[in-house]
Amino acid sequence: MSFADWKIKTGGAQTPAHGDSRLVLSITRMTIHNGPGMRTLILFKGCPLHCIWCSTPESQKTKPELGVYPMKCIRCGDCIPVCPTKAISLPDGKLTVNRSLCNVCGKCVDVCNAKALEIMGHRMTITQLVTEVKKDEIVYKYSHGGVTISGGEPLFDTEFALNLLKAFKAEGINTGVDTCGEVPWKGLEPTLLYVDFFLWDIKHMDPEQHKKLTGVSNKLILSNAKAVAARNVPLYIRIPLIPGYNDSEENIRATCEFSRGLASVVQVDIMPLHHLGKARYDSLDRMYPIAGLALYSDEAILGIKHIVESYGLKCVIQA
Fold this sequence. Notes:
The chain contains twelve helices and 13 strands. It has 319 residues and is α/β, with parallel strands linked by helices. The chain has two domains: 3-63 and 121-317, TIM Barrel (Alpha-Beta Barrel), CATH 3.20.20.70; 68-119, 2-Layer Sandwich (Alpha-Beta Plaits), CATH 3.30.70. Strands 7-1-2-8-9-10-11-12-13 form a nine-stranded mixed β-sheet. α4 runs parallel beside α6.
């Protein structure tokens, strides 16, 4: 659901107080790769990690951002006069935004019929989110699905996440949390009563390498995973496979050893590199840090899958 669509649906309602709301990137219905059954996926902004392979760079910051898509621009120029900071221009017919001037007010988005401009992140309350998710209740009933909150990091604001999960549970909705695990335990622990499963990323087993690749050590991530498993909350371990960064046999085996030691692990998902996020970097005028990395062959992916399965773990390839 885009910012423009949300404004139409809500009538451009007044921005709610932040304690009862969070910036939402998107709501995607009937997904099948984010937990069991068909699910509604909510992506939030804000993440404590900055993985060099992140495919959703717009989810990292905790403020709205302007996405710019010059290929969609029809050069009507309607956005230029409404910009209060004079940040938009069309040099040589190419849509250009001076980000040092842009205040992300959204006025240009409101007049852009070609959707060449987009606000990434719109604030929604718990009530609004529950209302949206309940529209899919019939889908959950027949597919044994539910809602999965993701991001960014859905537990970045643990108080908001706790209240949101409570609200979903009060409606009888199955809840999944797709997390990087870099969350203070005192904030994570109260949510466990309202979470049916976690999708838990393990990006590297070596703490120093993890810090180089994501900006933080993996110490808290791994200790939290152990603590959650000890509470018998189902865990789906997820391994992003990035050539030359975390796909060595040594690291894959270390991840499998760790996963095998977690009593509540349901399966291990391996997620091979794709370059679908490059367009998002372009829309934010950011450099794509892993351009040029070759994609995996089917044979290589199956080889890693066989290693995981050799540890007695169920393994699923997530395309």
